[in-house]
Amino acid sequence: MSAANGTATKTVETGTLSIGYLEHGAPDGWPVVLSHGFPYDVHAFDEVGRILAQAGARVIVPYTRGFGPTRCLSDETPRSGQQAARGLDIVELIDVLGIKRPILGGFDWGGNASCVAAALWPGQIGGLVSYAGYDIIDVNGQRLPVAPALEKVFWYQHLFQTERGRECLSQHRRDLCRILWSEWSPGWQFDDATFARSANAFENPDFVDVVISCYRHSFGLEAGEMAMQEFEARLAQKPAIAVPAVTIDGTNDPLKPGGTSHHAKMFVGFHEHRVVDAGHNVPQEQPEEFARAVLRVHEQIN
C-alpha cells in the first residue's frame, strides 16, 4: 500500500493494534511522532514531515485507531476512542519501534493524545508540540455547558451522543467531515483531491465506533475501558506537563475562540506559546510554523 505522496505505508503490531504509519527521513534521525486528529489523517503532516526530514529528523506519522489501515488485532478489543487509550497507543507504538524519547506533535485528537502521553509517561517522551494548548480533556468539566455560540460550533459532538448521530456519521461520513473541514478552517482553500486523499481513511470499519466512543466518553456518557480507568483517574487530576513544550493557537479556529494562552500554568518545564494565522488544521494550513515549533523543542533538548 502506498500513500498519495509516494511514501509507502508501513505497519507494526503493538499489544492491541496493527498500526499503519508513514515515515519521513533517515532511520537514524532524531525522532518525532506526529499524530492527526478527527476528521483528518496522516496527510495533514506531509509537508511538516518533509521539512523536518530535511532538518535531520526521523518522522513517524501513525494513523490513529479507527483510521486508514490501523486495526484492532482482536474482535474482542473495545473500539474505544477515549483519550487514555489513544495516548497509550502512542507510547506502545514508540516502544515497539524502539524509539527513545521522541518529540510528540499533534492537533485535535492527536494533540490530545500527545498531551496525555507526555503527562502520564514523561520518562518516555522527549518533548511536545501541541495544538491547542494543554489539550487533555476535562471529562467532568465537559458535563457543564459553555456559551451558546460555542455550543453551536460543537453541533457534531451533540449529534454523536444519539443513535441518529451514529447513523448520520455512518451513512454520510464524507459529507459530514467535509463540512467540519470548512467550518474549522474558514480561510483554507483546499481542493477536492486534498479532501478525498484524507477521506479514504474514514472507510476503516472501526471509524464510526471509535469516533462515537470518543465523543460520548468525553461528555461523560460512556464509561470507557476498565483497563483505562486508572489512567483516566490520573488525567482527571489535571497533571502538569513537564517535558519541553511549544503550544500553538490558530487565529481563525472557531473551536478555540480566544486561544489557549491561559493554559501556560499547566506546563512546568520549558514552554513557549505561539499564535499563527490559521484555522484548526495548523499542520496543513501552516506547515512551516508547525515544523518550526518542533525544531524549537528539538533545540531545547539537545
Automatic annotation (TrEMBL):
Q: Which residues form the AB hydrolase-1 domain?
A: 32-293
One Pfam family named in its UniProt record: Abhydrolase_6
Recorded GO molecular functions are:
hydrolase activity
Task: Look up the record and report any one GO term of the cellular component aspect.
Answer: membrane
Read off the InterPro entries from this record.
AB_hydrolase_1, AB_hydrolase_fold, AB_hydrolase_sf, Epox_hydrolase-like
- Alphabetical list of Gene3D superfamilies matching this protein: alpha/beta hydrolase
State the source organism's domain of life: Bacteria
Q: Which UniProt keywords apply?
A: Hydrolase
Provide the protein name: Alpha/beta hydrolase
